Amino acid sequence: MPRKSPFVIVLTDEERSYLETAARRYTSSYFKVIRAKAVLLAAAGFENKEIGERLDLPRQIVSKWRKRFFQERLAGLEDRPRRGRPRSFSPSGHHGD
């Protein structure tokens, strides 16, 4: 029996419009497009396993984005700062001549 997510997604008209636009936008990052599509499929009633199969994502990743959207709505789909030291680049761009 498939595991049913406790995080049922019901979109407002504004959220649906935003996500549909994001899912079609070629200038968006791949990750934003995939997250938008995953949430739209979740709102359409698909389970995480099936969403993962359709989008070629692990079920755990689909589950993560469903849960974050459920808890934080659109803000939950944004990238978060990563742990660890940020990358640094030298301001001059070259390493001594």
Approximately what portion of the residues adopt beta-strand conformation? under 5%
Q: State the low-pLDDT regions, or none.
A: none
Structural class by secondary-structure content: mainly alpha
Radius of gyration: 17 Å
Strand count: 0
How many angstroms separate the termini?
A: 66 Å
- SSE series: HHHH
Q: Helicity level, as a percent range?
A: 40-55%
Query: What is the averaged pLDDT score?
Result: 86
Count every helix, treating DSSP H or I runs of 4 or more residues as helices.
4
* Biggest sheet overview: none
Give the CA-based shape.
globular
Q: Could you walk me through the main structural features you see in this protein, from its secondary elements to its overall organization?
A:
It is a single chain. With 97 residues, the chain is mainly alpha-helical. It has a domain at 13-77. Helix content is 49%, strand content 0%. It has four helices and no strands. Helix 1 packs across helix 2 (30-43). The longest helix has 14 residues, at 30-43. It is globular. The model has no long low-confidence stretch (mean pLDDT 86).
Q: How would you summarize this macromolecular structure in one to three sentences?
A:
The chain has helices at 13-24, 30-43, 48-55, 59-72.
What keyword list fits this structure?
mainly alpha; globular; 4 helices; 49% helix; 97 residues
Layout of secondary structure:
Layout: H1 13-24, H2 30-43, H3 48-55, H4 59-72
Helix pairs in contact: 1-2, 2-3, 2-4, 3-4
